[in-house]
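Handoff note, outgoing to incoming analyst
You'll be picking up this chain. Sequence as last confirmed:
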Amino acid sequence: MPLIIVHEDITKIKMDGVVNAANPQLQPGGGVCGAIFETAGKMLLKDCQAVGSCKTGEAAITFAYKLPARYVVHAVGPVWEGGGKGEPELLRGAYDYALMLAETHDCNTVAFPLISSGIYGYPKDLAFHEAVVTIGGFLGRNREMDVYLSLLPEGYRPPYYPGDLKAGLEAFHRDGAGSALFDRKAPPEGARSGPPLPDFLANLLRVKGWAREELARRANLRTDELAPILEPPGGADPPSKNSLLALALAFGLPGIEALGLLEAAGYSLDPASRTDLTVAFFLEKGIHDAYLVSEASFAYGGDFLGALPRIVHAKGPWRRG
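Most recent structure output, in case you need it:
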C-alpha cells in the first residue's frame, strides 16, 4: 500500500499496471506516451482506437501487450494554462481515476509517470505535489497496492511547492540545528530507560485502537514491513530510522514522544540529516501527514519516508492466457 519514488523507465519494469500520460485522443505522443506505444506494439493502438477517446481528468484501460505489465491505464491530465482553469482538480481526477481502474482490475503494483509535467507544461513542483497528495489519499483509504511514481532523469527532485511553508522550511534547514529536538542524544546501548521498542509500539497501537493495516497505510509502509517491527524475530536488527520516523508521524506523536520512539531503537534526530531536519520542522508545526512530510523531505534532498522500493526489472513481456 505504499507510495514509492523511483527513477526508472516504467516501460522496462514489471508491474501489474503501467500508467500512460495520455492525450484525449488516446493516440501515440511524445515522451512517456510515445515510449509506451512503441514498446507495447501495434495492438495497443488498436485497443485505443476501439476505446475512441478519454476526457481530461479521467482514464481508460487496455491490455499492455509487449510491455512487462498486464494493463496500461491511460490517464489524461490537463494542459497547464496558468492554474485558473481547474487544472489541479483535473490532474487529481486523472490520478484518482487511474488508481480506481487499477484497483478494479486487481493490480497490486502500478507505476505512474509525473502526469502532465512534460509537453503539457504543468510545473513540476505543482505536479509532484498533486501526485503525492492524491496517491497518498487514495492509499490511505484503500486496499494494499504498491504505487511507484517514476521521476526521470536519475536523481531529479521536484522543488518543494506549498508556499505557506516553504520560507519557514528553508529557514529551518539553515538554522534549525538549534532546535530543542536535536538536544537529546540516543542513550548508549544498554542504558535505555524506556520500554523496549515493540512494547512502545504495541502500547501506541492499543491506545489508538487501530488495526495494523491502518497504521501501515498512515506510515506509508507495507504490512509485511510493519510486522517484523511490531514483533521482531530473535536477534533481528532494529528497524530503519526512516521507518520509525514514518511511524512517529503516523501516530501523531508530539516532538518529545517522537524522540522517545527513536530512542527505544537507539536513534536520535541528527541536524546534519536533511530528512531529520525536515521531520523536526513538521513536528514543531504539529503536522503529522507522512506523505506531506515525505514530499518536503524528498524535495530538500532527504528520504521519502516509509516503504523501500522492490522493483522487478522485466526479463520478458507478460503473456495473457
